[in-house]
Amino acid sequence: MRAAIVLLAVMLGLCAAPLSAFAQQEAPAHLPENIQIGLSTNRVTITSDFSGADLTIFGAIDNADAQISRQGGYDVIVVLEGPAQPLVLWRRSRFLGVWVNAQSQTFVNVPLSYSVATTRAPQDITNPDSYKRLSLGTAYIYLEPQERSGNPATISEFTAALRDRKLAAGLYSENVGGVQFLSQTLFRATLRLPPNVPVGTHKARAFLFRNGEFMKETSSSLAIVKAGFEQTVFRVAHENSFFYGLFAVALAMLTGWMGRLIFRKD
Fold first, then answer.
1. Is the dihedral of CA 205, 211, 212, 215 positive or negative?
2. pLDDT tens across the length of the chain (266 residues)
3. pTM of the model as a whole
4. DSSP character string of 113-182
5. Are 201 and 81 in contact (CB under 8 A)?
C-alpha cells in the first residue's frame, strides 16, 4: 500500500513539472516595427512636353501593434530627395545706382529638389527637435554652408533665402495628407514631380513614427532621365562640352546672319 502511494506521488510530480515550467515561461516580446516601400516606377523619362507627373509610392508596416494601429498611433512621412550639388547664393546691392552681386554664400550637398508627403500636419506627428535631428521636412532640412566659421546671423539669412527660392520655384514642396493608410498596415504616398525636376538619381525615403517617436527609416532609388533629342543634347553638352560650346556659338552666329538677311530693309 505504501509503495502504491509513493508511486502515485512520483507520477503526479512528473505530470506537474511540465505544467509548472510552462506557467513560468514568458510571452514572446513584440518585435520592433519595420517599414517597407515600393515605387510605382523606378525610372521617369522627361521629354520636351513634360509638364510634371505624380509619383506613387506604396508601403507597409511590418510587426505593427494592432492596438496602436486601431488608435491611429502610426504616422508615415515620405520624402523624394533629388541629387545634391554645391550651390552659390548671391546677395545683390546697389552700387552707384547699379545692382551688383555684393556678397555670396556657398552651400555644399544641397538637394536640387525635395518633395514631402505626410499622413497629418507635421506639428501633429512629432516635435521640432525630431525633425531637426532627422533633417526632415522643408523647414528643417539641413543646408550645410561651406564656411561654418562665418557670421551665424548671415549664414541663417542666406539659408532662409535659399529655402525660400527653392519653395518659390516649386522644387521644394510639402503635401499634407499625401500619405494615406489603405489598411492598418498598408499605405500609399503621392508625390508631385514639378516640370523643372532635375535629372539624375533621386532617393525616396520613408520615416515611420509611433505616437510621435521615430521608429524606422527605409529608402529606394528613382532615376529621372531625359529622352529623345533632349537626351542627345544633354549627353553631348556634358561629354563634349568644348565642341558643344563651339557649335552653340556657330549656331547663334548663323541664326543672327540669317535673321539679318530675312528682315533687312531694302
1. negative
2. 454 444 444 454 544 444 444 444 554 556 789 999 999 888 988 887 888 888 999 999 999 999 999 899 999 999 999 999 999 888 777 777 676 767 788 999 999 999 999 999 999 999 999 999 999 999 999 999 988 777 888 889 999 999 999 999 999 999 999 999 999 999 999 999 999 999 999 999 999 999 999 999 999 999 998 876 555 666 666 666 766 677 778 778 777 777 777 766 65
3. 0.74
4. -EEEEESS-GGGTS-HHHHHHHT-STTT---EES-TTS-HHHHHHHHHHHHHHHHHTTSEEEEET-EEES
5. no
